[in-house]
Write a structure and sequence with these properties.
The protein has helices at about 10-25, 30, 65-90, 100-130, 130-140, 160-185, 190-205, 210-215, 220-235, 245-250, 275-295, 330-340, 345-355. It is mostly helical and about 375 residues long.
Length: about 375
């Protein structure tokens, strides 16, 4: 890493290339990709919600009327960018065990687009936020998920195999869709315009999910369920704390809206911003699992979305001993319950064995949007 701070975006691009090599993803399909910042049209040229509703969207940071708003905007961009680079680091070792060339190319596309999304956020930081933006853009490429240095806990967890990856893209990337959508309504025009191409690319990531695994019927459903139990709670955590003052002010300042902002009819509840979008996400996950269950043979237990209280680390349910069905357990029983409901070393070993020995463990090109 450079001893001095970055001064130009070209400097940042040089560091980006170093990062690609350092984490082991400098494959030709990735390095030959033309990385660039992309912008699309927003729904409105006016701020759509909050205290500045009806005023022209801000094209430059200096136009934003309050330093607290500028600091909050910087924070939103940093956290979004950090998740993009972190997910690449989580998935970096999957290239060696791709089930098929189709899956490897899908992984290449997912990883490349996640890199481009991080590139996009750093482009905003470098071009709009002066020295602070340059510092944050550099730090973005210095943190490592596998060193537990990423900003959000979900992005410091390992993605150990392709079952892990498929469930991750189903649920964690689905949370990403929600976050990008909420930022697409931002009163800061360059951020809102960045979200349009990112959302189009994100839609492919959701299509790399797991129903092909269920159709193949090789991996036991109880193990698939354990991976759902792993990733749904961390995805729920990604929406943030309950009764969040930050989410409150993001909305008041016109920086980040509700997921359903254009169609929401109820008056906004500023004290429950995160809870509102989290519940919409949970409902979508339930519908997704219902679709996947159509491929579960008759007579077998269906997959399910764990209760919103299970294995949470953020919010009112954080670190409380709730079961996957939402029942309060003793601490001793809860410790055993986690072993029963989350992937254990034996489960990981079995999945890896199946992937290496059973060539038809996944149905070709199976996906759910």
């Amino acid at each position: 890493m450079p001893a001095t701070r970055l001064t130009t975006f070209d400097d940042w691009v040089d560091l980006f290339r170093v990062w690609q090599k350092d984490i082991g993803v400098a494959y030709p399909e990735i390095t030959n990709y033309k990385f660039e910042a992309k912008f699309g049209p927003t729904r409105s040229n006016e701020v759509e919600f909050g205290a500045y509703k009806g005023r022209p969207k801000w094209e430059k940071v200096v136009q934003i009327p309050d330093q607290r708003m500028r600091d909050a905007l910087l924070n939103l961009i940093v956290y979004q960018g950090d998740t993009e680079f972190a997910s690449v680091e989580q998935q970096r070792r999957l290239f060696e065990t791709a089930p098929s060339e189709h899956d490897r190319q899908s992984l290449c596309r997912v990883v490349t687009e996640e890199m481009r999304h991080g590139w996009q956020m750093c482009h905003l930081l470098m071009n709009h936020f002066g020295y602070s933006g340059r510092v944050e853009a550099q730090k973005m490429l210095e943190r490592r998920a596998f060193d537990q240095k990423r900003l959000l806990g979900a992005f410091n967890q390992d993605v150990n195999n392709w079952l892990d990856f498929f469930v991750y893209t189903d649920f964690v990337d689905r949370d990403g869709k929600y976050q990008l959508t909420m930022l697409s309504y931002s009163g800061f025009a360059p951020l809102a315009q960045s979200m349009i191409p990112m959302l189009k690319e994100e839609s492919f990531h959701l299509g790399t999910g797991q129903d092909g695994i269920v159709k193949a019927g090789v991996i036991p459903l109880n193990i698939i369920q354990k991976y759902i139990n792993k990733w749904v709670p961390v995805s729920l955590d990604l929406f943030g704390v309950d009764r969040s003052s930050s989410a409150h002010w993001f909305y008041v300042w016109g920086l980040k809206g509700r997921y359903d902002e254009p169609t929401a009819t109820a008056e906004v509840n500023l004290e429950r911003m995160n809870e509102h979008s989290r519940e919409l996400y949970r409902q979508e996950c339930v519908k997704l699992v219902e679709m996947i269950n159509k491929n579960v043979p008759t007579g077998q237990a269906k997959l399910y979305v764990p209760d919103v209280k299970f294995n949470r680390f953020i919010g009112e349910h954080a670190r409380k001993p709730y079961s996957v069905t939402g029942e309060m357990l003793s601490e001793e029983r809860y410790a055993e319950h986690l072993k029963e409901m989350l992937p254990q070393p034996g489960d990981v070993a079995l999945v890896c064995e199946i992937q290496s020995l059973e060539k038809q463990w996944i149905s070709p090109k199976g996906s759910n949007q």
